[in-house]
Design a protein that fits this description.
- The chain has 2 domains: 146 residues, no CATH class; 237 residues, L,D-transpeptidase catalytic domain-like (Beta Barrel).
- Helices cover 36% and strands 12% of the residues.
- Strands 3-2-1-10-4-5 form a 6-stranded mixed beta sheet.
- It has 15 helices and 10 strands.
- The longest helix has 19 residues.
- Helix 1 crosses helix 2 and helix 5 runs antiparallel to helix 6.
């Protein structure tokens, strides 16, 4: 593991300064302004920070409540950011206002955000009936798949996660000759998943003590919105690994990240590594070429395809300088959520020196083969409550190694 990695933002002093600055110069200052076209950016600036640190007080709730008085006058960008905030920090509180906005908006993405806010209450059958009725009335002339993905999600509420045969994905005949990183997750992204790596020779990577390599990884967005919405959870499916990058974001930190591409971010020829493909238009049949037969019939594994189709971009695998203490008591602690990327835990001392990094372990593990060139696949294993453990995967890894 690299030594001497440093982030001033991860120091105790800078973390405290970030919190106080967010509180004083953004939450107290910006939210105190009258909300108008000219102050929308000022108002929305603290929204993500409030989600990140899970900040809410009677004062912020009062200010947020006032937004509803003229929500229809606000810009689409502001409306989206606002709906993400209330979905994350204020579930159930603004039901009647969200219902009104859902009926009035012509924006399919905002419609879906409103619907997801209402669907967060599992017992709200009235809203479910209303959403279905409203979807049936809407003719989408934009060819945007968002409403179809919302409809599919509603039609499968409560349906158990049943994956096709996992051994098919762990076989050396799946993406043969390619380095493949597997991020195995629960359907409930509140629980960390696990990364394992199959080398280009078809064998799973082992550590010097001959045990299999594995590292925890969180695929949860801070919003916990579904994958098909901006800033939602990490989509399931296949990603093209596109090398190593260093982020300029202070929240991701200086540890190398793994660059990933979804369909629609790369041409079919590049994504499938097939120069004979001359058409640049994506179809599910092209994506299907990468999958074993039983998996090709599984809708869920097409998450990256549909997320790319509706405009999600820049989902990568990175480390973190975010203070895990924000999430003490959560099921994912000491992991930290992101904006929908794959995030591996890192710990920093009070001076900002890195003392532990699961992200670096993943990068170093990939470097033993072809580097971060190949594919990464995110798969939801099942609906169990709890982190994914290596013991659940070993039988398929061993079987793959024997082939």
């Amino acid at each position: 593991m690299q030594q001497g990695v440093y982030s001033s933002f991860a120091s105790r002093q800078r973390r405290d300064e970030f919190y106080q600055n967010l509180l004083k110069n953004y939450i107290r200052k910006e939210l105190a302004l009258p909300l108008a076209d000219s102050t929308e950016d000022d108002w929305s600036e603290p929204f993500w920070g409030m989600e990140l640190i899970q900040f809410k007080t009677p004062y912020t709730q009062d200010r947020i409540t006032r937004v509803w008085d003229h929500i229809g006058d606000r810009s689409p960008d502001f409306q989206h950011a606002f709906l993400e905030l209330i979905y994350t920090n204020y579930p159930g509180i603004f039901r009647s206002q969200v219902v009104q906005l859902l009926h009035s908006t012509a924006d399919v993405h905002l419609f879906a955000l409103c619907a997801e806010y209402l669907l967060k209450d599992p017992g709200d059958q009235e809203s479910r009936t209303m959403i279905r009725r409203e979807m049936a009335l809407r003719m989408d002339t934009t060819r945007d798949a968002t409403i179809d993905l919302l409809r599919h999600r509603m039609n499968h509420e409560g349906v158990p996660t049943l994956t096709p045969p996992m051994e098919d994905l762990f076989s050396p005949s799946f993406l043969p000759g390619q380095t493949v990183a597997y991020s195995i997750q629960r359907s409930n992204r509140d629980y960390p998943g696990l990364v394992i790596i199959r080398q280009s020779d078809g064998h799973f990577l082992k550590k010097p003590d001959s045990s299999y390599f594995s590292v925890p990884q969180l695929a949860r967005s801070i919003t916990n919105l579904p994958y098909y919405l901006h800033d939602g959870n990490t989509p399931q499916g296949i990603y093209l690994m596109n090398g190593i990058g260093i982020s300029g974001s202070r929240f991701l930190g200086p540890t190398p990240n793994i660059q990933l591409l979804m369909p629609y971010e790369a041409t079919p020829a590049r994504f499938l590594k097939d120069d004979s493909i001359t058409d640049t238009a994506w179809t599910t049949d092209l994506y299907k070429r990468l999958l074993p037969p039983d998996w090709a019939a599984d809708f869920n594994i097409y998450g990256t395809f549909y997320a790319g189709q509706v405009g999600r971009r820049e989902v990568i695998a990175h480390g973190t300088t975010i203070d895990p203490d924000y999430y003490k008591g959560s099921t994912w602690y000491p992991q930290t959520p992101s904006l929908g990327c794959l995030c591996a835990s890192e710990l920093w001392d009070k001076d900002g020196r890195r003392i532990y990094s699961d992200q670096q372990k993943i990068v170093d593990a990939l470097a033993t083969d072809n580097g971060a060139i190949g594919y990464l696949i995110v798969v939801e294993l099942d609906d169990r409550a709890g982190p994914v453990g290596l013991g659940e995967l070993i039988q398929w890894m061993q079987k793959g190694d024997r082939q």
